[in-house]
Design brief:
By secondary structure, this protein is an alpha+beta fold. It folds into three domains: about 110 residues, Butyryl-Coa Dehydrogenase, subunit A, domain 1, CATH 1.10.540; about 100 residues, Butyryl-CoA Dehydrogenase, subunit A, domain 2 (Beta Barrel), CATH 2.40.110; about 160 residues, Butyryl-CoA Dehydrogenase, subunit A, domain 3 (Up-down Bundle). About 55% of the residues lie in helices and about 15% in strands. It has eleven helices and ten strands. The strands form three sheets. It has a four-stranded mixed sheet. Helix 5 runs antiparallel to helix 6, helix 5 packs antiparallel against helix 7 and helix 8 runs antiparallel to helix 9. The N and C termini lie far apart (about 45 Å).
Length: about 375
């Protein structure tokens, strides 16, 4: 079997699972603001929770191209479930790369099997996701570090058993794995989110939480690198999930425009509707190609892999919002009612423009990296 056949087989498997086990529950996830109880066991049974891990950790050794396809298909079915794969994968990937052997042995197999759920805890009430503005503190103790502070908008913070967290210390920023059962950690649910409403968001309050030395990732003062590496995984996941949203929008729009009659003919015959459909189709193809390029760059660890994920996330998330807005427009009043998926897709798409790097931050980052590349190219030409 060649690589193309393998990818086709994987995507068919992912799509069948998403359509059978995830999509039928998406509206209920949105209404109840939590995911159904069967979701985590079903994901774990198929090895989808941390499929990039080695077989020694019970993983599937999947590359990022394949994982991008998984997150696309799950994202088309339900953005909240895709969000679970995102933050769980960010925590697992950080432990896999930076964790001490004892920590890896303890948690990685459990993360694969769904016995433990991981989350990403960077954002704070006063700092957002600004690494330099983090206020949560880590004070050295003979048995580890004592954490004090708050983390907010933590996706699946209500469900998670452990958190990948950044805190500042006298030695610099430190990345930790913080286990939920530690004394002094209070998890406060946050309800009423606009989109991805099943993602069980929480605020984490740390009051003299003692984290053992073995739960420090990498070395002290290297915390920013750990979090940035995890964010790179998260950006590709969100970009791929955005592709899924575009596909779901296109599917819903095609069905509706073909079925509904307006002014004596099918809605699809109206040219402005055709324009919306053609724009969605083009954005879908372009977004999918950008995600594929970003995934390949991560797999090959190319020098431009960070820029590739910036481009994929920026374009795909904004394209998802365009597609969702047009889908609501095509559906008319029906698009504003929860009996059709259009309004949920639009709310979910808006979240894609904010999480793992806002549209505006990504624009700044893309331009800065391009300036750096231009200066380097100019130097090379003058040598």
């Amino acid at each position: 079997m060649n690589d193309t056949d393998q990818m086709t087989q994987y995507q068919a498997e992912f799509r069948a699972f998403a359509q059978d086990q995830v999509e039928p529950y998406a509206a209920e996830h949105d209404r109840s603001q939590k995911i159904a109880d069967h979701i985590v066991p079903q994901l774990a049974q198929r090895g989808y929770l941390a499929p990039f891990l080695d077989k020694k950790w019970m993983g599937k050794c999947l590359d990022m191209v394949t994982i991008s396809l998984l997150h696309e298909e799950i994202g088309a079915a339900c953005s909240s479930v895709r969000s679970l794969l995102t933050v769980h994968g960010m925590a697992a990937s950080a432990i896999n790369r930076w964790g001490k052997s004892a920590l890896q042995d303890k948690v990685l197999p459990a993360l694969v099997h769904g016995d433990l759920i991981g989350a990403f805890a960077l954002s704070e009430p006063n700092a957002g996701s600004d690494l330099e503005g983090i206020e949560t503190t880590a004070t050295l103790h003979k048995d580890g570090y004592v954490l004090n502070g708050k983390k907010k908008w933590i996706t699946f913070g209500q469900l998670a058993d452990l958190y990948l967290l950044l805190a500042k210390s006298e030695k610099g920023p430190i990345a930790f794995i913080v286990e939920r059962q530690l004394a002094g950690l209070d998890v406060v649910p946050i309800d009423g989110m606009t989109g991805t409403r099943g993602s069980m968001v929480a605020q984490l309050n740390f009051n003299d939480v003692l984290v053992p030395h073995e739960n420090v990732l990498a070395s002290p003062a290297f915390g920013n690198a750990v979090m940035l590496n995890a964010l790179n995984f998260g950006r590709l996941s969100v970009a791929s999930g955005s592709v899924g949203i575009i596909q779901a929008c296109l599917n819903a729009s095609l069905v509706y425009a073909d079925k509904v009659q307006r002014f004596g003919e099918p809605l699809r015959n109206h040219q402005l509707i055709a324009q919306m459909i053609s724009n969605m189709t083009t954005d879908l193809a372009a977004s999918r190609l950008l995600c594929r390029a970003a995934a390949e760059s991560i797999d090959k660890d190319t020098p431009d892999h960070v820029q590739s994920t910036f481009l994929a996330k920026y374009f795909s998330s904004t394209a998802a919002m365009r597609a969702a807005t047009n889908t609501v427009q095509i559906h008319g009043a029906n698009g504003c009612n929860e009996s059709f998926p259009a309004e949920r897709l639009m709310r979910d798409a808006k979240v894609m423009e904010i999480i793992e790097g806002t549209t505006q931050i990504l624009q700044v980052n893309i331009a800065e990296l391009e300036y750096q590349s231009h200066r380097q190219r100019s130097k090379n030409l003058t040598r």
